[in-house]
Amino acid sequence: MSEKFENKLSNIRLHYKIWMADEKEEGILGDGKWKMLKLIEEKGSIKAACDALGYTYRRTWGNLRKIERFFGFPLLEKHRGGSEGGRTMLTPEGRKLVRAFDTFHQNIDNQIQQGFEKFIEDLKN
C-alpha cells in the first residue's frame, strides 16, 4: 500500500445516525428526536430546544406526537407559569425512553467505534 494512501487513513472520520422505524418503515425515534427530548428536559421549553437545534416547532411537535402515538404514553408535562413563564419537562416514561436510548446509543457507539478501528487496521495490512 502506498504511503500516500496510509497517510489518508488518519484523516478518515466516522459519521453515522441511528434511528428506529415501525413496520411501515416510518421513523419513530432516532438521533435527532433523542437530542430534542434531551434538550426539552434541559431547557424546559420545546421552543428553546427547537431554536438550539435549528428545528421548526411545527415539525418537532408532529414528531413528538408520532412518538407518543407509537409508544402509547405522553412524553411531555407542561406547567403553565405566571410571571416566570411555564416549563415543559419529560414525563417519567419520557425520561425512561431517553435513558434507554442513551444506554443503547452508548453500546452501539462502542461497537461501531471498534468496527471502524478494525476497518482502518484492515486497510493498513
Topology:
Elements: H1 3-9, E1 19-21, E2 27-30, H2 31-43, H3 46-53, H4 57-71, E3 76-79, E4 87-90, H5 92-124
Antiparallel strand pairs: 1-2, 3-4
Helix pairs in contact: 2-3, 2-5
Describe this structure in words.
With 125 residues, the protein is of the alpha+beta class. The protein has one domain (3-124): Arc Repressor Mutant, subunit A (Orthogonal Bundle). It contains five helices and four strands; from the N terminus they run αββαααββα. The chain has helices spanning 3-9, 31-43, 46-53, 57-71, 92-124, and strands at residues 19-21, 27-30, 76-79, 87-90. The strands form two sheets. It has a two-stranded antiparallel sheet with strand order 1-2. Strands 3-4 form a two-stranded antiparallel ribbon. A hairpin with a 5-residue loop joins β1 (19-21) and β2 (27-30). α2 (31-43) crosses α3 and α2 (31-43) packs across α5 (92-124). The longest helix is centred in the last third of the chain and has 33 residues, at 92-124. It starts with a helix and ends with a helix. 10% of the residues are buried.
